[in-house]
Amino acid sequence: MYDKFNRKINYLRVSVTDRCNLRCVYCMPPEGIDLVKHKEVLRFNEIEETVKFAVDNGIDKIRITGGEPLIRKGIVNLVEIIAKIKGIKDLAMTTNAIFLEKFAKPLAEAGLHRVNISLDSIDENKYREITQGGDINLVFKGIEAAKKEGLTPVKINCVIKKSANEPDAKAVKEYCDKNGLSVRYIHEMNLGTGEFEIVEGGTGGNCKICNRLRITATGDILPCLFSDEKFNIRKMGIKQAFKLALENKPENGCFAKNNKFYNIGG
Ligand code: SF4
């Protein structure tokens, strides 16, 4: 599919939950969040139907996100369902890897191709501080399990404030070089003010070549991360929601007052 700026849209980011087991300071407000009610969260068959429609219409890259996707009940079964959809060339997941040691093998067997893992520091205390309680040793075990099960290339998403020369960012790079991983630096973004930069080592944030749409766990198709436009598949049907999302995809991201990272999956 193409948008009105003739950008080829072949990438759908599928958020399967707004919930997370961590509280990263730049994502989750310390006071917690108003969790989406269970009945508002898309069922597996709705996600399957939506992804099928998307793939039939030109999407060939799917990324499963959250919140934290590994806390969605039955996530391995959902990956299996999506992996069976003909036409997907790249099926990836973004995870904080806290539970990945346990899930790597069943996810690989279910058909997941690869993972991106969030890691902003390799310092145990700093990591616990950033995630408000996360255990970095579980992440390291998750990374090893992903490599062992062939969920590769394993890419590390490292959030930075200003530059890749920050001490934590440099240490993450060193760790990645030593362990055969590639790092992508994601500048801290502000949805409300529209502050964002192109992902270093990736294509996110490069509006000129933007190829993506997003679907939230409650079925909103979002044309752009930095826009408040959304089109709900339950309210208007999958076909109409995608049609309107494509028609309303902005040339450039602006700002989004209503979007939250934890329920969009970045
Ligand atoms: S800000 Fe919007 S248009 Fe720009 S790259 Fe992100 S999603 Fe695409």
Key words describing this protein structure:
30% helix, 9 strands, 8 helices, TIM Barrel, 266 residues, 9-stranded mixed beta sheet, alpha/beta
Question: Domains counted in the coordinates: how many?
Answer: 1
Class based on secondary structure composition and strand pairing: alpha/beta
Give the low-confidence spans.
none
Distance between the termini: 22 Å
What's the CATH architecture?
Alpha-Beta Barrel
Major β-sheet strand ordering: 6-5-4-3-2-1-7-8-9
Rg, Å, rounded: 17 Å
- Relevant CATH superfamily: Aldolase class I
Q: What's the number of helices?
A: 8
The main sheet comes to: 9 strands, mixed
Shape type: globular
Proportion in helices: 25-40%
Order of helices and strands: EHEHEHEHHEHEEEEHH
What is bound: which ligands?
A: iron/sulfur cluster
Q: Any idea of the CATH class?
A: Alpha Beta
